[in-house]
Amino acid sequence: MSTCSDDTQDTDGEGDGVAPSDGPAERLVSRLVTNADGPDRRTVFPQGLSSVARMSTWLTANEDVFVDVEENR
User: Fold this and answer.
1) Mean pLDDT per 10-residue section of the chain, whose length is 73 residues
2) Cβ–Cβ under 8 Å, residues 39 and 33
3) Minimal CA–CA distance to 42: which of 26, 52, 27, 28?
């Protein structure tokens, strides 16, 4: 059995939830799936995409490889 949770991520560590860029900022959202019989997995994707667009615009990795930006500067 697994459970999911959503989490909005600050992508530049400035506390504003956006990444630095010359163009409009794109907010990333993540979903954590906890598994009783395997590693927890987090998927990151841009907020506001349709389900069809989201199918090709995502990144998934084991939860333990994600780090806190503030702790690793």
Assistant:
1) 55 50 72 94 91 90 91 85
2) no
3) 28
